[in-house]
Specification:
Elements (H helix, E strand, L loop, with lengths): L4 H15 L4 H8 L3 H8 L7 H10 L4 H5 L15
C-alpha cells in the first residue's frame, strides 16, 4: 500500500528538520506548537493547517513549496469526492 498524503508530508517535514539539525522540541517552540504535534505530523497522524505549514516553512527557513513538493506529479484528484 502506498504511503498516504499525511505520511508523505510527514517524511518530508522530518527530512527538512533533520537536514537543519533541528529537534522536534525546538521546532515546536519556534512554531508555537507542541513536541507531540510535530511528532504526529511527522508520522502522518495529523494533517497541518495552511497556517502551520507556513509557520513550519518560516521556522525551517525554507519555502512552503519545499514542504509540499512531495505531491508534485501525484494524482491528487482521488482526494476529492466525485459528484
Amino acid at each position: 500500500m502506498p504511503p498516504s498524503e499525511g505520511e508523505l508530508f510527514g517524511a518530508r517535514l522530518r527530512e527538512l528538520r533533520e537536514q537543519r539539525g533541528e529537534s522536534q522540541r525546538s521546532l515546536a517552540e519556534r512554531t508555537g506548537s507542541t513536541h507531540a504535534y510535530i511528532s504526529q505530523m511527522e508520522r502522518g497522524m495529523k494533517v497541518p493547517t495552511l497556517t502551520m505549514i507556513v509557520r513550519l516553512a518560516v521556522a525551517l527557513e525554507c519555502q512552503v513549496t519545499d514542504l509540499v513538493d512531495v505531491f508534485t506529479g501525484r494524482d491528487l484528484r482521488k482526494l476529492v469526492p466525485k459528484r
